[in-house]
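We keep the chain:
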Amino acid sequence: MKAYEFEFPDDLYYMKNHVWLKPENGQVSIGITELGQSLSKGIVHIDLPEVGESIKKGDMIVAYETIKAVSQISLPFDSKVISVNEKLWDDPNIINSDPYGEWIVKVNGKFSANLVMKVEEAIEYYTKLIAKERERYADN
């Protein structure tokens, strides 16, 4: 599905901070949406957690720095890091070239679809967000 020109695959869940989640086989892969990577062009540094690290609900799990800002990813559930995308240490910008193919971190945790948005909710949320931003900048 799409919100304007931005793709949001049907098999993922979404958070309002431009993060996607893909639960499978008891683990959850986490990445940045196409819209999120578009806003975060030029990722220059990424701080990944240690494998085995326990992260409390709401605490930062990943931080990434762009030429414009520092952004953080936190999850709405307790989790334990089971894998990090090692390629990101050398080239954090690969997220921009393939936002849905390049995950950032994989965790075990009590994932619940009630805590995040399904694709239909995400499309509605992000369509409104994009429209509001475009309207705001059209006035300048």
Observations:
- The chain has a mean pLDDT of 93.
- The chain is about 25% helix and 35% strand.
